[in-house]
Each structure stands twice: as structure tokens, then as C-alpha cells.
């Protein structure tokens, strides 16, 4: 019983250490607001931690009460994503479901990036 209790205590104590992450992303330095001109001038999503690269992410916009999602590879906004931005001028762009890697480890513990777009 003591072994079980100690094991559970250790697991409970170390779980927050592994659950915390400092990984975050931004689009051209923007984390909340972006103008369309800024977006078109810089199409790269960046991480805040050196050595980590974006492997994939999901781009989402709401158009006429329909949510449209496009899966992106790497850290660049694709032509399809730009088409949706240019055609529908969404108020918000959602960048989420990030998979980051540092070569050895993959992480999907990254806060979504929700940008308000001004035109």
C-alpha cells in the first residue's frame, strides 16, 4: 500500500513539470491583431523558441456561418489560405492544431493563434 501511495505521489508531483510548455507561435510577430497588408507581406508562422519548427497546423476561417479548414504543412500560409482571405475577408483567422518538432521530440501543446484581421 505504501509503494502504491508513493508511486501515485511521485506521478502527481512530476506531471506538472512535463505538462508545462513555453512553446508559442506568432504570425510575423503578431499574436492578436494583424492588418491584411501585414499578412500579405509576411506569410511565415514563427515559434518563440529556437530550435523548434512547425511541422503542420490547421488554418480556419468562418465564411457565411460555415467554418472552412485547410491543413498546412511547414510554417507558411499557403495559396489556398490566401485565396480564402482575399475572397472572403474574414474577421478572424484561426491557426491551431500545431505540431512542432525540434528534431527529436514532437509537441502538440501549443496555444491556438486567433488573429483579428483589419482591412
Fold and architecture overview:
The protein has a single domain, classed as Immunoglobulin-like (Sandwich), CATH 2.60.40. It is built from three helices and eight strands, in the order αββαβββαβββ. Strand 6 and strand 7 form a beta hairpin.
* Share of helix, binned: 25-40%
Shape designation: elongated
Order of helices and strands: HEEHEEEHEEE
CATH class: Mainly Beta
The number of domains:
1
The low-confidence parts are 16-20
Gross CATH architecture: Sandwich
**How many DSSP-defined strands?**
8
Mean pLDDT: 87
Q: What's the helix count?
A: 3
Named CATH topology? Immunoglobulin-like
Structural class category? alpha+beta
What is the compact description of this entry?
The protein is of the alpha+beta class and 119 residues long. The chain has three helices and eight strands, in the order H-E-E-H-E-E-E-H-E-E-E. The longest helix is centred in the first third of the chain and has 18 residues, at 2-19.
Mind sketching the topology for me?
Elements: H1 2-19, E1 25-27, E2 33-35, H2 36-41, E3 45-47, E4 53-63, E5 66-73, H3 79-88, E6 92-101, E7 106-107, E8 113-118
Parallel strand pairs: 2-8
Antiparallel strand pairs: 1-3, 4-5, 4-6, 6-7, 6-8
Amino acid at each position: 500500500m505504501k509503494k502504491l501511495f508513493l508511486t501515485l505521489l511521485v506521478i502527481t508531483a512530476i506531471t506538472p513539470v512535463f505538462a508545462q510548455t513555453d512553446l508559442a507561435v506568432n504570425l510575423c510577430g503578431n499574436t492578436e491583431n494583424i492588418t491584411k497588408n501585414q499578412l500579405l507581406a509576411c506569410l511565415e508562422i514563427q515559434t518563440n523558441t529556437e530550435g523548434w519548427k512547425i511541422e503542420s497546423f490547421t488554418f480556419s476561417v468562418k465564411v457565411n456561418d460555415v467554418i472552412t479548414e485547410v491543413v498546412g504543412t511547414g510554417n507558411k500560409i499557403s495559396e489556398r489560405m490566401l485565396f480564402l482571405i482575399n475572397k472572403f475577408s474574414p474577421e478572424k483567422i484561426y491557426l491551431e492544431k500545431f505540431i512542432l518538432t525540434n528534431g527529436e521530440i514532437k509537441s502538440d501543446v501549443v496555444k491556438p493563434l486567433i488573429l483579428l484581421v483589419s482591412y
